[in-house]
């Protein structure tokens, strides 16, 4: 995306590689409610575009990579994939790599052979594509790699409604999402005021329509007033206190 046409999405922190003479442009968007910071990406080859962001979790962090390798360029993925030996990673993008291991119907190119060799040599990283095509012509160009220890909680799928010539893909890491939800929920308690609670609910639900705290605020106010009058009535006092109060009140008169 060129600098004169900046993209902005409210509620998200944007990390991008602008479109230019030597770049196609790429972007990572992170909800502003999720702590994140930019990371200097490792070298992935001359002309290969890479953007990296660290997602800060309660007790750990996850480094997310967005990769684009133009077809004529050579990719150097060794340092990229071996990051999984040191920390949790999610690496996704258009790799333009071809190998039967990645897509059974395709031929082999050098980038595909190199990736498959790395997957054998680095057991800490796993390709989680299901084999489903990610391109409208049937190719599997968009690949997603994650730390092997995250595979049991990962779900990968193609979204055939979000598409250009490529289909969008979705990767869900259930345990991480659960941890962030529990961490977020822990900030709510009996002392959280109503406006803050509704604000957090709107954040959690995306665009939750604004609604009053009560569907019938006037009726609720009257009910609370009656309840207060009933609870504060002298009829609620013990008999001995009511007798003392009556005697004192009579003397005053």
Automatic annotation (TrEMBL):
InterPro entries in alphabetical order: Endo/exonu/phosph_ase_sf, Endo/exonuclease/phosphatase
Gene3D superfamilies on file: Endonuclease/exonuclease/phosphatase (3.60.10.10)
SUPFAM superfamilies linked: DNase I-like
GO molecular function: RNA-directed DNA polymerase activity
UniProt key word Transport: no
Presence of keyword Transferase: yes
Signal peptide interval: none
UniProt entry keywords in alphabetical sequence: Nucleotidyltransferase, RNA-directed DNA polymerase, Transferase
Domain Endonuclease/exonuclease/phosphatase: 63-168
Highest taxon of the lineage: Eukaryota
Name this polypeptide is given: RNA-directed DNA polymerase from mobile element jockey-like 28
Species the sequence originates in: Homarus americanus (American lobster)
